[in-house]
Design brief:
Shape: elongated
Radius of gyration: 39 Å
Structural class: alpha+beta
Order of helices and strands: HEEEEHEEEEEEEEEHEH
Length: 260
């Protein structure tokens, strides 16, 4: 029996590429992958394309994807690219004291300015100080992800102090950064001061003591050094003095000034 072959030829009608893309992008099929991007003769689905199962990386670190990192089921193409190329930056909290961290006993307290930067986190949900949520920190409205708050301190320093602040940010919209709790601690050391200098008479008032040329914080038993500037010449000599007499008189005059 002779075999018969039936062949068919389908004529393909040329259509503009833009028309093909529109038809692909608006397909009513349940398997649609969403927007379609054309690169030359290549068509790539993007946006809603997602992983169908968890994928654990066993390769060396690739971009920001670590070895052993799990790319979870449902991760979209966009999320994958972000995980690969973009390292999420969490929120930050900084506190600045208006005075130095080492202060003199009895000095007036200042203020603390807090700067909170949201970065990739969600919105700020809590802000308080000294570990008590009742002590609210009032932050300004957000400006380019940054908010500030000022805590005014009252009274005078008579002992060492520690000031704490806590800010809580919600997780990021894409869940790449979890809820974040930030803490800031500032310590103030209260110290006594010493004063020293060359004088004609013993100081009798606080103002006279503080007017001495050198001062510093007392940091316990140790050697403290300071410079001495003598304003007046120690000795005026006639021209006929011999050098040995000059040296002898300088020594006597210097010792007399010290003893006085």
């Amino acid at each position: 029996m002779d075999k018969k072959y039936i062949s068919s030829v389908v004529k393909r009608e040329a259509r503009p590429r833009s028309k093909r893309l529109r038809e692909l992008g608006t397909s009513g099929s349940s398997g649609s992958l969403g927007p379609v991007i054309s690169g030359g003769d290549t068509i790539v689905a993007s946006g809603s394309a997602a992983l169908e199962t968890d994928v654990t990386s066993n390769a060396d670190k690739t971009g920001h994807i670590e070895t052993g990192q799990v790319l979870v089921k449902g991760m979209t193409f966009t999320q994958f690219v972000k995980a690969l190329l973009f390292k999420p930056v969490p929120a930050m909290l900084d506190g600045r004291l208006s005075t130095a961290n080492d202060v003199e006993y009895g000095s007036t307290k200042g203020s603390i300015t807090y700067t909170a930067t949201r970065n990739g986190n969600g919105a700020m949900t809590k802000a308080y100080y000294d570990n008590d949520e009742k002590n609210k920190l009032e932050f300004s409205a957000e400006n380019n992800g940054v908010q500030t708050a000022v805590r005014n301190l009252t009274g005078n320093y008579i002992q060492n102090e520690t000031y704490k602040a806590t800010v809580v940010y919600a997780e990021s919209e894409d869940k790449s950064i979890p809820e974040t709790t930030l803490n800031n601690t500032i310590s103030v050391n209260v110290r006594r001061k010493w004063f020293a200098g060359v004088v004609n008479s013993v100081p009798t008032t606080s103002a006279q003591v503080r007017a001495l040329g050198s001062s510093g914080f007392y940091m316990g038993a140790k050697r403290y050094e300071f410079s001495v500037k003598l304003v007046k010449p120690l000795l005026e000599l006639p021209e006929h003095y011999e050098e040995v007499d000059i040296q002898r008189n300088l020594q006597r005059k210097y010792l007399r000034n010290i003893l006085e």
